[in-house]
Each structure stands twice: as C-alpha cells, then as structure tokens.
Write a structure and sequence with these properties.
Elements lengths: L6 H10 L1 H21 L5 E10 L7 H22 L2 H14 L2 H5 L12 H5 L2 E5 L5 E8 L2 H22 L4 E4 L14 H25 L7 H8 L3 E6 L24 H17 L7 E6 L6 H14 L4 E5 L7 H4 L8 H5 L10 E5 L2 E4 L8 H5 L2 H13 L2 E5 L8 H4 L6 E7 L5 H13 L4 E8 L4 H27 L2 H18 L1
Parallel strand pairs: 5-12, 6-10, 6-11, 7-9, 7-10, 11-12
Antiparallel strand pairs: 1-3, 1-4, 2-3, 8-9
C-alpha cells in the first residue's frame, strides 16, 4: 500500500496503463452511442413567445415607459401563475380533446380519474424570460412533435384568462403560434457519447488508482534495492517463442531458440556479468536460483542463465535440485531417468547422472526420479560431496531449487553454495513474501547475492483487444435486437415469409 504519489509516479502509472485507458474510454463511448441511438426515445420541441403589458390604450410617451417597466415586473408573477396546477389541468383537458389517449399515454402519466397528471405535464414545459424585455418564452418538449406544439398553443390560448383571474392587472398576448418541428432535439448522441467516454475514463482511472494504492506487490526496482539493501542482479521480461508443435502445454523459451528478441539476449548477458562479479571473491563458483513462491519463473531463468554463462565461455553445469516439481528436463527436452536423486542415493555413478554437451559448454543434471524425502537428500553429506567433486570439474555450477517460502530445500543447500539468487515476479510477489525470504536467509546465514525481477509483459493485442471486441460485440447484438423490435410488423412478416420460401425451395 502506498501512502502518497508524486506527479511523476502518477504519470508513470497512467502511461503504463495507457492502452487500457484508451480502449476502455473508447468502449464507453461506443456503448453510450449505441444506447443513445437504440434505447433512448426521440424527443421533439416547440416554442412560442408571449408578451406582457401592464396597461393598454395609453399613447403618452411617459406612460409607455411606465408600461414597459411595469410589464417587466409582472413577468415573474405571470410565470408563477402559468405553472399552477389549474393551468396544467386546463392544458391537459385540451390535449385529451385534441389527441387519442393512447398517443398521450406515451408522453404523460394519467391519474385514477383518467386525467393527465399535472406534474408530468409541468415537466414538459419550460418558461423563461427574455433579458431586458417583457417577453415570456415557452418551450414544450414531448415524444410527439405535434403534442409539443399543441402544449405551447394551448398554454397561450388559456393564459390571458388565468392571468386575469389571478392578477387582475395587465394583459398577456401572443403574436404567432407554435410550429411543429420534425427534427428531434433529444437524445443528443454526441453529448451522450462524450459523457460516456468521460465516465469510462473516470471509472478506469479510479480503478487503476485504487488497485495500485492497495497493491503491495513488487514493482519498483529502486525501492526494492533501497529497502532490502540487496543488489539487483537483473530485470528480465517474460517472453515466448511460437512453437510448431502445439500439442505440448508447456512453452519454455530458451536463449538458443530462434527469433529471441535482441534485448532479451542482452539482459541475460548483463545478468551473466553481474553473477560473475558476485562470485569473483568466492572459492566455490556454485550458486542457487530460487524464488519466494511457485510460478515466478525461477526455473526458466536458471536455464537461461546457465546458457548465457556457457555462451560466455564458461564450462557450466546446471543442476535441477527441485525434486518436487522438476522442469529442467522439459526445458532442454532430455530424459530424466537418472539424475540428482539417483546420484545422491548412489543408485548410479555421478558421471552417469550428468547429460553432457546439452549445448556447447553446458552439461545438465536433471532431478532424476522424484524421491519421497528431497529435503533430507539435499542436506545429506552425499550432496555436499557431490558438489565438492563437481566444483573441481566445472568453472561454474547453477542449481535450480524449490521456492524458499514453500519448502526448506533451498535452505538445506546453504552450506554447499556461495550464494542464492532470488527471482521475484513483477505484480505477483508481495513485500510480505520478500520479507519472509530475507528473514529465512538471515536465520540460515545464507549469502543472498541479490534479486532478479521477472517482468510480465502485457500483450495488448492478445489480452485487451479481445475483451474490448467482446464488449463491442455484445453492444452490437443488443442494438440489433432493439432495431428488430422497432421494425414494423409487416416488414418482419415479409422477411420471415421470404426466408420460409427460400428454405422450402432448398429442401
């Protein structure tokens, strides 16, 4: 959990998620566009202006000025009168005379007496004053353009009567009638689309911030080095090479495979250099590679470090000491009938358990058959004797061990190795996991050479776009369904009839 963010950290956080932000924002706009087009009803508007006079029949100039001034003062009073329930009820009665009740029910709600609810009618009417004038502008909005115009005209026709009853001063007049406008004023598709995009943007940004705030997984190399005072041996991105054989579920990509990215090769060369520096003062050129938890990439990293060391001219040996979940024989596609377990138990001679020249300068000792007591075997004197003998034959030895926080196997090798490299996985290994590893190694007096951070590379094309496509597809299906619902019954029947004829002809 982070306590605070700097501007730089926020920018970096959002830039790392920029494709997610962009795609979610676009998806929000698409969904809003489709919803506005297919689900929101069209609304039509009409308008008319009424003019207020405080007195009539006065021609004197001073009297005209007073008339205008008084008219402005009466406008607000008249507007309140025109919003009254009695006025709304009168407009509703006129609408019932002018339109069918079915059409009106699509625009208004009715009470138990079969009358239009005054509140539902009032919501359709907007009254406003025109600045520096004595005019009142009336705007009516409804789902039917003719109803919208009728509301305006009905209001202007009854306004003088109700104003005279309520106020008794002045008059209100209309010069023209409201017209029917066939162009809808709502929904505003562009506005709704922009609102949808803005809402999606706010949601995804909020989720990213909340997720990152409570995320206690390792992400910052600098903070990792500063907090634990351990060297960062290297950072490596997870990569995969496309295989011709799709039958295998495992896809272990090695540096010797074709089409390996150049930067991956260079990263492993850098790790090779750092490992050599770490072991420069040690008599034993033996080190182990482990991790905090399973599935953090320590086995494939062990294999590729061994390959990189061999490519650098070192006579190297890779030992698979993970006798619980051995994978090195799968990575190098070699047999596992003999290996470390049979060598420790002396079921086979040591040389028989080593597979020579798996590649130039690299030999591999697989785990062998999985024993019931791997911890005891690794802690045995035979294991120590084997490593002492192998140390004389090889320039460097790499041991792939089980995760530290799962079993004690790695700790059992403390007396046999010069140090341990711990693999951490970006966005998966937590600070609690790292602290547990550090404490165990300090307790066992194990020399921790440093950390290697496995960075998970997110493929936008494979992980994000399909999800977005699914969202868009769902939206299109819903839109299509709604369009069919809006089709006339005759059109649907016609299409169905043609399909039926076509099917009958084929059969």
């Amino acid at each position: 959990m982070k306590n605070s963010y700097t501007i730089k950290e926020l920018i970096g956080l959002f830039l790392n998620k920029i494709w997610i932000i962009i795609i979610v924002t676009i998806a929000g706009g698409i969904l809003s566009f489709g919803f506005s087009k297919m689900f929101l009803p069209f609304e039509y508007s009409s308008h008319v202006s009424m003019y207020v006079q405080s007195y009539t029949g006065i021609s004197d100039q001073m009297a005209d000025q007073n008339n205008i001034s008084n008219s402005k003062q009466l406008v607000n009073t008249y507007m309140e009168v025109l919003k009254d329930d009695a006025v709304m009820a009168a407009i509703g009665e006129l609408l019932l005379e002018q339109f069918d009740e079915v059409i009106l029910s699509e625009n208004f709600t009715f009470n138990m007496s079969g009358e239009i609810e005054t509140e539902s009618l009032r919501k359709c009417i907007e009254l406003s004053t025109v600045t520096d004038t004595s005019a009142v502008k009336v705007i009516a909005t409804a789902k039917n353009p003719e109803i919208a115009a009728s509301i305006c005209n009905n209001l202007t026709s009854i306004a003088p009567e109700y104003v005279a009853k309520a106020v008794g001063v002045g008059s209100i007049n209309t010069i023209d009638k409201a017209k029917v406008y066939e162009t809808p004023v709502a929904p505003n598709v562009i506005k709704n689309t922009l609102i949808g995009m803005a809402a999606a943007l706010m949601i995804v940004v909020t989720i990213i911030l909340i997720t990152d705030y409570f995320d206690n997984t390792v992400k910052d190399v600098a903070l990792l080095e500063k907090k634990y005072k351990k060297a960062i041996i290297g950072e490596i991105q997870e990569f995969a090479v496309e295989r011709n054989d799709k039958s295998s579920k495992d896809n272990y990509s090695k540096l010797t495979d074709k089409d390996i990215p150049f930067y991956i090769v260079e990263r492993y060369k850098s790790i090779r250099t750092n490992v050599n520096f770490s072991l420069a003062t040690s008599d034993k050129k033996i080190f182990a590679v482990s991790s905090a938890n399973p599935s953090e990439g320590k086995s494939i990293i062990s294999a590729n470090i061994a390959i990189a060391l061999a490519q650098g001219g070192n006579k190297a040996l890779l030992i698979d000491a993970d006798m619980r979940k051995a994978v090195q024989h799968k990575i190098f596609e070699i047999k596992n009938k003999k290996g470390l377990s049979t060598a420790i138990s002396k079921m086979n001679k040591l040389d028989e358990c080593i597979q020579k020249n798996v590649m130039e300068n690299l030999d591999v000792m697989t785990s062998g058959p999985l024993p019931p007591n791997p911890s005891e075997l690794l802690a045995s004197e035979n294991m120590l004797a084997i490593l002492d003998e192998l140390n004389k034959k090889y320039q460097i030895i790499i041991i792939d061990t089980p995760p530290v926080n799962v079993v004690t196997d790695a700790m059992e090798l403390a007396k046999c190795v010069s140090g341990i490299v711990v693999v951490l996985r970006y966005g998966r290994t937590t600070t609690e996991d790292i602290e547990a590893v550090v404490k165990k190694m300090e307790f066992s007096k194990v020399n921790m050479l440093g950390f290697i951070l496995m960075v998970l590379r997110i493929s936008v094309a494979e992980d994000i776009i399909p999800n977005t496509s699914m969202i868009i597809s769902v939206a299109m299906v819903i839109t299509e369904k709604k369009m069919k619902q809006r089709m006339k019954r005759s059109e649907v029947e016609n299409i169905a009839h043609r399909i039926s004829l076509s099917y009958t002809a084929r059969n």
